[in-house]
Write a structure and sequence with these properties.
The complex is a heterodimer of chains A (461) and B (165).
Chain A lengths: L31 H6 L4 H7 L3 H11 L11 H5 L10 E7 L9 H7 L1 H15 L1 E8 L4 H16 L15 E6 L9 H8 L24 E5 H13 L1 H5 L2 E2 L2 E2 L1 E8 L5 E6 L5 H8 L9 E5 L8 E2 L3 E4 L2 E4 L7 H6 L8 E6 L4 H15 L5 H18 L6 H13 L7 H25 L11 H6 L4
Parallel strand pairs in A: 1-2, 1-4, 2-3, 7-13
Antiparallel strand pairs in A: 5-6, 7-8, 9-10, 9-13, 11-12
Helix pairs in contact in A: 2-6, 2-9, 3-6, 5-6, 6-9, 13-14, 13-16, 14-15, 14-16, 15-16
Chain B lengths: L6 H11 L9 H12 L6 H8 L4 H10 L11 E6 L2 H5 L2 H12 L13 E2 L5 E6 L11 E3 L2 E3 L7 H6 L3
Parallel strand pairs in B: 1-3
Antiparallel strand pairs in B: 1-4, 2-3, 4-5
Helix pairs in contact in B: 1-2, 3-4
The complex binds flavin mononucleotide, iron/sulfur cluster and FE2/S2 (inorganic) cluster (FES).
Flavin mononucleotide (FMN) binds next to strand 4 and helix 16 of chain A.
Chain lengths: 461, 165
């Protein structure tokens, strides 16, 4: 069957559209009839004939790794629910999509909500869950409405509710809206928020959600995209699914590219089958005329930055930034991470101090404030980089900044501590000279960005 | 005059309450319902909501004051949020912010971390920076009430505001 896409939205030939098959499609709408017309909810019907353990086994065989940031294998995570558990089991879809540079879940929820709901019903059946929540960020008000309408439609067809399709399985899914805090994307912060509290993350151990999550019951938290993959795994079988992508990095994933490229956008590719060079040059039309690549943040703003002229060691091969395969293991081997799939491209017109300052302002604003190193440190990192950008830095500031970052990393309750300090640690490790120059020769010697002044003017924020 | 919670808002809260095994979980949905009606959460309703959810007022307050989306004072009829974060900033969102504030007649010179929202004199618009709105590929982006606007150029500011009157 040939699918046509809206003008200007046609997938690139290097893409492999599965999760985003219906995104930007001509004649597609989020309604259930449209979804059913093309085999929607057939995976659910198939799953309901399987034993829950067999569904879990398929997902394990498929090897799909979490698309929310940490890249943990979904099937393995589901297996952490204690076998002798007698409490209710909860499933939470993490639809907080708040990692800077990430913009994929939004399109799934706005345009293809039933794909997510189908994945959630299958997952709930596999883990023995009867109440599931979609925790969606407040800034997606229309998506929340679309999902609520889709849930009603699905209930109308008995894909949800009591005795689903006569199997005796019951499930309700509820949409729960967040309220503008990044830390609600962290799974234990999310759980606290869903319990009606401040989203203060819980310490692990003991609060691993699969054992002690929502209301201290076993809880599986998965990202929107991860849950959509479940639908496809059941449809094609775990073994077939695992043929997509590369070993240990199976399936497809959506890469979101923003920043200094000619055509930013989203691209669904087989994991590891496309290099960073192909992504930037072929899929995004390359850099703007006359510009050179300076750096790439490959997996959301928390990922460590890669410098354009670095050499990376990958399986005894020395490669350049352009040759890095976009998969979990390769990006980890290059000292960064695949994270949430948000690729931010930075060209040589940008001042590194300005970029780092913008990132630091984000983490200073979003720290939940529970741990002293994170609460105080994220603010100090912002203040010091404010000062550097404003042209009032001293050469010692770069070292001070670095020492603050290393005093957060590894000393906090949740991984926000790393998320907040890795940018500073990696920017300094890789651009120390430029940052030092920015302090001594306040922006004169360094590359001047037209927005530098404005950023400095708004440092109060 | 103390604020009155309209019947339909209370109904909405009652309906949301049925979705959780624990009343406290309905706190964010309840605050959304109240803010959906008043455009902010009036302080005199904190006690009311606490009683409704069988909480202490402080448990409502700590949530109300933590989350950036909840407002404790009245914003403009049209509340604008401009993305401040990296990809949008690279695409010029700080210039956009200045253009929108100027055209909306808003003085942002007193904006700070604790008072991020500034309102125009006529009460029509208010504005603040928001962090990444998950539309980084089409920056700079801003939201006006519930609507997302993408690739907004500073020179489009006037036209954008004219759509909200
Ligand atoms: C600070 C922080 C923010 C996060 N934000 C998100 C988010 O917005 N969306 C998301 O799916 N996961 C986010 N995560 C990851 C979640 O904690 C969790 O690992 C994920 O939702 C699990 O789903 P997955 O295994 O399907 O990826 C965040 C983690 C941290 C530490
Ligand atoms: S590391 Fe930061 S965000 Fe995480 S719990 Fe501690 S203070 Fe909160
Ligand atoms: S940086 Fe503005 S939407 Fe992400």
């Amino acid at each position: 069957m040939s699918i046509s896409y809206k003008p200007g939205k046609v997938p690139h030939p290097l893409e492999h559209r599965m999760i985003f098959r219906n995104v930007d499609r001509e004649g597609w709408d989020p309604g259930i009839e449209t979804y059913l017309r093309e085999g929607g909810y057939e995976s659910l019907k198939k799953a309901l004939t399987m034993a829950p353990v067999d569904i879990q086994a398929e997902v394990k065989t498929a090897g799909v790794r979490g698309r929310g940031g940490a890249g943990f294998p979904a099937g393995v995570k589901w297996g952490f629910i204690p076998p002798n558990n007698t409490k209710p089991v909860y499933l939470i879809c993490n639809a907080d999509e708040s990692e800077p540079g990430t913009f994929k879940d939004r399109y799934i929820m706005h345009q293809d909500p039933h794909q997510l709901i189908e994945g959630m019903v299958i997952t709930a059946f596999a883990i023995g869950c009867h109440t599931a929540y979609i925790y969606i960020r407040e800034e997606f008000p229309y998506a929340a409405k679309i999902l609520e309408a889709a849930i009603e439609e699905a209930r109308g067809k008995n894909f949800l509710g009591q005795n689903i399709l006569g199997t005796g399985f019951d499930l309700e899914i509820h949409v729960h809206r967040g309220a503008g805090a990044y830390i609600c994307g962290e799974e234990t912060g999310l759980i606290e928020s869903l319990e009606g509290k401040r989203p203060y993350p819980r310490i692990k151990p003991p609060y691993f959600p699969a054992a002690m999550g929502l209301y201290l019951c076993p809880t599986i938290v998965n990202n929107v995209e991860t849950l959509c993959h479940v639908t496809h795994i059941i449809q094609m079988g775990g073994t077939e699914y695992a043929k997509l992508g590369t070993p240990n990095n199976t399936g497809t994933r959506i890469l979101c590219v923003s920043g200094d490229v000619q055509k930013p956008g989203y691209f669904e590719v087989q994991v590891g089958k496309v290099t960073l060079g192909q992504l930037i040059n072929d899929m995004c039309g390359g850099l703007r005329p006359g510009r050179q690549l300076k750096a790439v943040i490959p997996g959301g703003s928390s990922a460590k930055v890669l410098r354009a002229d670095e050499k990376f060691k990958l399986k005894d091969r020395e490669i350049s930034i352009w040759d890095i395969p976009m998969d979990f293991d390769s990006l980890a081997a290059c000292g960064s991470m695949a994270g949430s799939g948000g690729v931010i491209v930075i060209d040589d017109s940008r001042s590194i101090a300005w970029v780092l300052n913008n990132i630091n302002a984000f983490y200073a604003h979003e720290s939940c404030g529970q741990c002293t190193p994170c609460r105080e440190g994220s603010l100090w990192m912002k203040k010091i980089s404010d000062r550097i950008v404003a042209g009032k830095g001293s050469p010692d500031d770069v070292d001070t900044l670095e020492s603050v970052a290393y005093r957060i990393d590894g000393r906090t309750i949740c991984a926000f501590g790393e998320a907040a300090s890795w940018p500073t640690e990696s920017f300094i490790a890789k651009f120390r000279d430029e940052l030092k120059a920015a302090t001594s020769d306040s922006l004169k010697g360094a590359i001047v960005n037209p927005e530098t002044k404005l950023a400095a003017a708004s440092v109060k924020h | 005059m103390p604020h009155q919670v309209p019947v339909e808002v209370e109904k909405e809260i009652d309906q949301r309450l049925t979705r959780y095994p624990d009343k406290r979980s309905a706190l964010l949905p309840a605050l959304h319902a109240i803010q959906g009606h008043f455009r902010y959460v009036p302080e005199d309703l904190v006690e009311w909501l606490a009683a409704k959810l069988e909480l202490d007022a402080i448990q409502v307050m700590e949530v109300l004051t933590f989350y950036p989306s909840f407002r404790q004072s009245e914003p403009g009829r049209y509340h604008i949020r401009v993305c401040r974060t990296l990809s949008c900033a690279m695409a010029g969102s700080h210039v956009l912010m200045d253009a929108l504030a100027e055209k909306a007649g808003i003085d942002r010179s007193h904006a700070d971390h604790h008072h991020p929202i500034c309102v125009s004199k006529d009460g029509r618009f208010s504005i603040e920076f928001a962090e990444c709105l998950a539309s980084c590929g089409t920056g700079p982006v801003c939201m006006v009430n519930d609507d997302l606007h993408e690739q907004v150029k500073p020179e489009d500011a006037r036209r954008l505001l004219d759509r909200y009157s």
